[in-house]
Q: What sequence folds into this?
């Protein structure tokens, strides 16, 4: 779908067909069959899920923000009783990551 390489660093985003689920303490936070897969130099493939497949009603915006020179500024979400910063996303990504705009990513996803 989208691919960009800059100074040896590569980002590629493609539509996946895997069925993925995210659970924390036995509670399902997200389940999707339409993830966006983001591959980035030096990192494992990350699954970005559309917001309509995420229980956003269970998440609270965090004050955490990080800046990636290749993807842009990430915003984070937490569960009210923890853990903190369980999900992140790019509300205004740089062009290389435009396909994951407003999608949410979790550190641990289960492939079904």
A:
């Amino acid at each position: 779908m989208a691919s960009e390489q800059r100074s040896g660093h590569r980002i590629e985003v493609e539509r996946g067909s895997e069925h993925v689920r995210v659970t924390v303490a036995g509670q399902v936070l997200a389940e999707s069959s339409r993830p966006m897969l983001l591959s980035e130099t030096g990192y494992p493939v990350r699954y970005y899920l559309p917001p309509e497949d995420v229980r956003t009603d269970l998440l609270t915006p965090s004050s955490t923000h990080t800046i990636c020179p290749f993807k842009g500024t990430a915003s984070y979400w937490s569960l009210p009783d923890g853990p903190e910063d369980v999900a992140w996303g790019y509300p205004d990504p740089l062009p290389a990551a435009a396909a994951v705009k407003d999608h949410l990513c979790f550190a641990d996803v289960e492939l079904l």
